[in-house]
Amino acid sequence: MKVCVAGQGAFGQRHLEACAQIPGIEVVSLAGGNPTGTEEIARKFNIPHWTSYNLTESIEQPGVEAVILATPTQQHAEQALECMRAGKHVQIEIPMADSLADSEAICAAQKESGLVAMAGHTRRFNPSHQWVHNKVVSGELKLQQLKAETYFFRRTNMNAAGQPRSWVDHLLWHHACHTVDLFQYQTGEEVSVARGVQGPMHPELGIAMDMSIDMKVPGGAVCSLSLSFNNKGPQGTFFRYICDNGTYIAYYDDLYDSEVKEENKIDLSGVAVSMNGIELQDREFFGAIEERREPNASVHQALSAMRVLDTIEKSFE
Hints:
Elements lengths: L1 E5 L3 H10 L6 E7 L2 H10 L4 E4 L2 H5 L4 E6 L6 H10 L3 E5 L6 H14 L3 E4 L6 H12 L4 E9 L19 H17 L5 E6 L11 E7 L5 E7 L7 E8 L2 E6 L2 E4 L19 H15 L7 H18 L1
Parallel strand pairs: 1-2, 1-4, 2-3, 4-5, 5-6, 7-10
Antiparallel strand pairs: 7-11, 8-9, 9-10, 11-12, 12-13
Helix pairs in contact: 1-8, 4-5, 5-9, 7-9
């Protein structure tokens, strides 16, 4: 399968690394931003074609069937629609859009085209969260509370690789999206109560640097999410699953029993074919294309999370 990846930044590179581990996948074009950086990454991953700021040229390369969008959030909706109009299957890195209206437009385009359109909700695929999900589905665990902390130190506009960003990240429409979707996925229910508060806006970036969100599903499980771009401590997102039969802490692809200590680490080697959540996410995308089915984390499945984010945003007002 010939694939195009859009975005030469930190997450674009993670998808390129993942694609290199999946048999039968050939990345034939890289659509990047900065010309020098794009060429450097293309050469690093032996990609024969690259272009700067021209997704159209990239998806028009001979034989391209699918596109992975790891571009700035504000471009996701427009680029996803372009890909589907061109007859290409598309995976959109989280979030699929930064508004409910744009998310609904993407879902409408997928329905009209019949193509595979998937949102990059990696938490569904991390072995740590898969382990918990399997226990919940089997009835061994019942989730009572999900406590999530998403913390970074980004008082300047830098990306995960420490490079200047050409766009501004967002705590609600990007980082909270992970937890909103995960909470609904793990409970099997749609959120019935959602509200949030946010701190002062950054004078240059124009975004809230601190945020707190509370949610509840009809079955009674609750979720509390704290987010900050002001935190100098451990970076990333920690999830504490408080269940009727145990407490677990998930940190990306790792899972711990109660405390983050090596002796409490749970063996996840049998959960999936890889220990890399991004690789598992990409495998699902390509598998759905080959098998002509709806993928886990399809844009339609992800739409309910976008509705919740819209509700939370309105609660700020």
